[in-house]
## 1
Amino acid sequence: MSFRINPNISVDCVVFGFDFRQLKVLLVERIFQSDYSLKPIFTDHTLIGNHIYEHEDLEEAARRILKDLTGIENIYLEQFIALAHPERLKKERDQIWLQHIGHNPHNRVITVGYFGLLDINAMEIRAGSRKVSWFPVNKLPALAFDHHDMLNHAVECLKTRMRVSTIAYTLLPKKFSLSQLQTLFEVIYGTNLDKRNFRKKMIRMKYLIPLNEKQSNVSHKPAQLYMFSREVYEITNRDLFENII
């Protein structure tokens, strides 16, 4: 069955992962080749995005596109921005690319951005026809369209949401140490936190459950592991993170 594409509306997904050292984002390689020699004329990257189908709502389209390009399903997604500047697709490379893939380069396209969070070590990326890779947010390759602006907006939105919600735990494995949790906050906010104060504040949060288990296969003294309890979080009326940073 074929579906009709809406040529004026797209969605783009900023998918974040954390490897205990860096915040990373998932990007799709874009290669424009010569029709004659098949040699690359230019190579850059995009966020995970495409046009919506006429019958889809926006989140439905975002989840379909994520699955098509990466194999990712059932992750946290949150809408955070819409970009609609008339000149957002007017760079020379983007005009060439749009014409190459059969899109009208003169169409005005409004894109709606979603950011997604996942445990980078627990989700297998199954790329389709285009290469998909993780890149550190602070060391990006050239990005197409206005995707650099969208990514910057997503990072700021993530910082804001981490102050007032528990979405940070979506970036961590089910079991983690307090040091790993502290590193996550330090990396995203670009600051150093006092270890004693951080631990004191986090231990007061009833939904952070200490486990009778320690780290294994580490070169340092194994730390106690914790887990986040969604059930306890809901019961205790959602303690806020406002005083952590």
Note: The first strand starts at residue 5 and ends at 18.
## 2
Amino acid sequence: MIKLVERDFESFFKAPFNTYSSDTPYVSPMKSDLVRFLSSKTNPLFENEEDFTFFSATENGNPIGRITAHVHRASNTLHKTKIAYFGFFDCPNNLEIATMLLKACEEWAKAKGFSKISGNFNLTAMQQIGVQTGGFENAPFTDQIWSPPHLPKLLEQNGYVQSFPMTTFEQDITKLDAAKILSNENTKRIEENGFTFAPVNRKTLDTRLEDARNILNESFIDNPMFVLVSKEEFDF
């Protein structure tokens, strides 16, 4: 018997381990990190516990699927949208289970007054995003989502359409000519534009991290879906 449970963290955490075999490239976030993510007390993304929920699908008590439903208030404000999100979508190749999880998110979003739902976001566009649609023969890099080929098919069967295709590129840095990238001419041009190179050590770490946050925000401000990362989020 398949059953949907809400806000049961243990089943939420265990679901992908029961769903994806050990020979897949799936790597789970650390349990302690997921605990921090799914709490308004620790995660600055959420104003309160009403901003999110999470569901697990169990079969005879065995968790085999999961999903989050949540809101990113800063994104809706910035982009003038009214969108809810789903994330951490993991399930077997089973349409009944996928539909049960997605419908739970859709109903949550409607009850909150949202007119649209989008995903997969774990939990924002500045974190892990999307489901894998190709390149399954390649291993994922650090902090990249791996998901099985059946997930995009299950989404399409539930009426979802692709909206923001992305590609990962691989560059062998051992074959790059560092002298051409950072030639004297390029270095001079960088310095003329006000850039400086600063060391990172224990004494300067806090300052350099804040520099990194500001550079990140300034560099990505015009990118689709990007939202300025607050100091609280960056520190988190």
Note: Residues 95-111 form the longest helix (17 residues).
## 3
Amino acid sequence: MVDGNAIVEASEVSVRYGKFLAVERASLSLRRGECVALIGPNGHGKSSFVNALCGLVARRGEVRLDGALVAARDPKSALRAGLVLVPERRHLFPALSVRDNVLLGGYAKNRRVRADRAFADVAEVMEVFPELAPHLDRPAGALSGGQQQMVALARAMAARPRIVVLDEPCLGLAEAVSRRVYEWLTMMSRQELTILLVEENPVQALEVADRAVEMYKGVLDDPEVVAAVQQAEVSAS
């Protein structure tokens, strides 16, 4: 059944690498302005599933963004529909300046964007990430890991997304930097940006998520994960 309030609808999505089935018939809907945590152990298909949503890998099944079908192996169609991925390990261009990395976010969405509009977008994004403003002319590779993660987030926002997928955004970051990332997530969710947060740590993810779904051995399940995690947290305290 189609959810009229859903902006992301994945139906029976499977991803296979040769003989290895990474994701098996996974279905998920995200409503507009909702923050959903995709939790589960590493190596169980979470990244493969979100890459399928973004059109980055071959898949079976159907993905629709605001009703528009996203073709497999066609990331441009996902980007045109307003979905932006912040990948695990950031994937910045280390030799380019912070400014140029952020500019690439808008350029990826619209290659015809005017230069004055693009630079205005960077200035607007810097209001959200003021800690990056002093480093705009520095090579992105010269920044700390936490600062680089902020550049990756800023690059995503320069594309003016409606849906952001974050794949393990706090991986390898210090606790203080992780808190800053989660502050940003909270702020963005209040502005009705739809967010899919891939996270191994369910307790941390549920600090900002409206609900959680779990992927285990490539199978996506939603057995009241939020309630189960909250109960486990209470029992451990």
Note: The mean pLDDT is 84.
## 4
Amino acid sequence: MQANLIYITDGYPFVKEDNFSGDELPYLTAQPWNLVVLPKLRGLPPRHLPRYDFALDTCLTVPDWQRVRFLAHWRSLPFMAAEVANSLTHGILPRPVALCKATAVALHARAALKKLILTQKLHRNALVVYAFWFLPVVVGAWMLRKEFPHMRIVSRLHGIDLYAFQSKGGYLPFRYRRASMADVFAPCSQRGYAYLKEEGVPEGKLTCNYLGVPEASGTALASQGDGLNLVSCSFAQPVKRLPLLGRSLIALARNRPGLRVHWHHVGDGPQFEALRNIVSQQLPPNLRCTLHGRMSVEDARRFFTGDTVGGLDGLLCVSASEGLPVSMMEAQQAGLPIVSTDVGGVSEIVTSDTGVLMPAQFTQQQFDDAVLTLCHWKQRALREHIARQGRMLFSLENYKKFIRQVLEPQMCISEALLRAFLRT
């Protein structure tokens, strides 16, 4: 019997920037499974569609105008009542809009997954649902457990889908019920592992699995002279605190008038205009700012080598919260030192050998001192050491390990459960 794996991606292949699923996909297709890739989002025609089986006619995200229909379903009221009661037990007041939206998405995903499984007859053999993020679509799969008792559920977790404090109002739907909603939780950092364990997820369900990124095309060049060419790379949202980064760099330039600084930012988002307003003001004469906006993942990887901007001297991050930033994995593969706030799983990437950590609430003096250390990281030997660290921790081989250590065992369990069910 050929086993079945349903791989739930975020935006791939519709969203070109969601390249992490694209990195993992070749390793999944190399297995003797029937692989069905199920994008959570559906939109314009796919920008890059390999020769894989995508369930492009199935969408797991319910449109706003259809939410009322799913909220009127008989399952919704008891489900939401249980969530409210559970949250209040832990002293959390659910946000009604967030709860209603998450419930509608979960019920819609349940119906869509059930139709996909029955239409393609995936329930007749071993079946694993693997989600790249722990989102309400995973809850929809969990709702099908009674109908497909041999189905196993595996979910990675990153940041916004893991930490309640990253959610608006500190409310993360199903936070205190998720321990039962998957068979394996695979946070992408040791910090995430510890967080889930503290929240009551059994250790037997937990495994930490780093993501992997392609090896850089070369070691990043450093800028010439005594100046610093710096880069930040993130979506411009409040948690990234990019306006704070801009103000801190302006203060650094004023405090060190003899230091030439050129700051590049890669990425757009809701706070991009606020960032543009800061850098459009009169800057110190020794500070230049270039806002590159959105780049494809491939272009960002090439940018980190420094070839197009006369060399790069370090990656900056002042986030209030993080998971395990992929931008840092990319930078480290290229040999770039990193200056970052010590939040989330960042300390698993940034060590005394690869960069400098600052407190989340850093002072200007701490920021200045950390950035100025980058002047001493221009030596090629130091950068090659950073790149070796990156290849050791975050290579694409991590996807093979994940398949061997997580997905294959769950597939075997599913097959055993199915055989036992058929015998009865």
Note: The chain has 13 helices and eleven strands.
